[in-house]
Amino acid sequence: MRKVFKHSSQVTSIFVIFFCLLSTTIFSQTQKPEAVYGFYKGGFYMSTLGGETAYIGGSLIQREQAYQNGLRTQATLGVMPVRMIGVLPFPQNFPLPNDKVQAGNTRRATMEYGLTEHIGLFISYSTMSVVAQGNNQLAYPDRNSPNGYTNYVEAVPLTNTLYKDRNYGLGLNYHFLSRNKFDPFIGLEVSILNFDAKYRTGQLNNLYYPTYTHPGTGIGGRVALGMNYYVTPEFGFSLELFGSRKILKSNAFSSEAINHAGFQFGFIFNLDAIGKY
């Protein structure tokens, strides 16, 4: 009787041990890893941003501004008459509308991979545009003029896209904190770009001084200081302050430049974390 009871106790002990081992194995297989926030080695990040350009400059912008200032000066001094559309007389001593050159919205998308706990390699695609509002220089037939025509400034300003581009970039970000909800970083980027630019040649064409649109290519450099904040391991918000310089070339000019700086705000997604936690 004692032998039977002893044998039964051994079987029960073995069954309990087996059940504990099986439960531990199943629990370890179903338990999810601890959630990790922020930037880390092996993370794969996608961000989309948009914003405003606070500063715009460079030789291409200066050229357009100089052209507008020249027309305004000639009109003010009476060297060149001012007329409405269709060469209708324009009231004397009536000021011309102010000309403007301003940058439009910027758009940017990046894909970044964590090479180390602090350094990320990224590729990017971004766009930027510049809008200009100003007067045109025209001409009308004039038999009393030696040239057979007389120049004039058209009083009604026109608004057009002075410049727009598409940038394809490659760069590095340095992330000051790793595995943290707050992710401050600094980034450097080089890019190639395609652009379309309005370019005034000053050449008369059928009593009109046209502003041609010229396509071209260029190279650019960009520096950014930013902050990512992760609401969840998979999703967060992103803010960037940036500055950029672009060197341009087209069939109309050998070299012009555009500089711009501003801020962008958007969203960031950690693709490596999606479905893991």
TrEMBL record:
Name the UniProt record assigns to this protein: Outer membrane protein beta-barrel domain-containing protein
Domain of life: Bacteria
Annotated InterPro entries: OMP/PagP_B-barrel
